[in-house]
Amino acid sequence: MPFPKTEAEFLAQGYEFSNKARCTGCGAEIEWWITPKQKRMPIDPGSMESHWGTCPKADNFRRKK
Length: 65
Hints:
The protein is of the alpha+beta class. It has helices at about 5-10, 50-55, and strands spanning about 15-20, 30-35, 40-45, 50. β2 and β3 form a beta hairpin.
C-alpha cells in the first residue's frame, strides 16, 4: 500500500491523529500520527510527508546500532 498523501488517506488507511507539537531538533511544527501498527510518526502538516525525511536534525533522533 502506498504512503498516504492526504489526511483523508491517512484516516482511511487506519492512521490516527494524536496531537500537534514542535520538533525538538529543528523547531518545525509537526503532527504526531499513530500508524496502523501502533507506532508514533511525526508528519509535516500541509505536505503530509514524514518529518523524519525532511528534518535537518533527523540524525540526532536515530537509534545507534
